[in-house]
Here is the input.
Amino acid sequence: MDAITLKPRDVKFLKKHTYRFRPLLIEIGTGFVLRPVSSILRNPLHSVYDLLESRDSGIGDRISGFREDWFRIYLNAMFAGTRYQKAEYNIKISKNGNWITDVDAFIYDNLTGELALIQIKWQNYFTNDVKKLRSKAKNFVTEINIWAEKMLNWIDCTDVSQIIKNFQLKNSGGKVTKSKIYLFGLAKSSARMQGYGYKLNNEKIAIGTWAQFARNRTEVGPAPLVISKLFQNLKEEENAKIQSKPIPIKISFAGITLDFKDIWSVTEE
Here is the structure.
């Protein structure tokens, strides 16, 4: 109850909060609490998360400490069966005994020899604070660019046999070549950051959100070349221009008509 209840001591948090806060419960003293109707209009976990984080800045890391593992489990489930080899944990990349970076997940296609190396990002964008959003966008693009450069340099300087050994690929034979290695950057909810002023500058990595990747994986299905097709699709969508138009809504009651011109929008292909 304490964890999900807005209390008098949380006034400072409300002053700093930049968008409408909808608590599940509000303490009004002497053992009484209120449940606002507004709490059912939006995912209540977002408000609970914000409230808990205001009380303890480190709680986010403790709650989400296993998010990379969760993401990897979801990813591997989309490549079930004997056709693919997958990572059960992140893979360390090193050169001459020196650590370079990590690969959060990989998918190897036994049939074609295509290898997907994947960097996972899971950031919280549930805010309308422009400074915070721009900071998150900058961090995402910077980290993805740096990871891609490190991986491309490592691939260029490493023998194929060592790459196979590094990822413990079984029965790969002579199928693996450097031209069949594809880099992916997957974000939980946001990947295209041009609107915040930051753009990915590396054409050799494909980025996308989890929902976008899952949709493309379903559409590609058991194709002859799955990984390269996924890479191609994400690259095409990466710079696609999305057109939207407002949907006007009229609401009439008590002889009054409210005419909303631009509350909801629809995208046009």
Remarks:
- The two ends are 46 Å apart (CA to CA).
- The first strand starts at residue 5 and ends at 6.
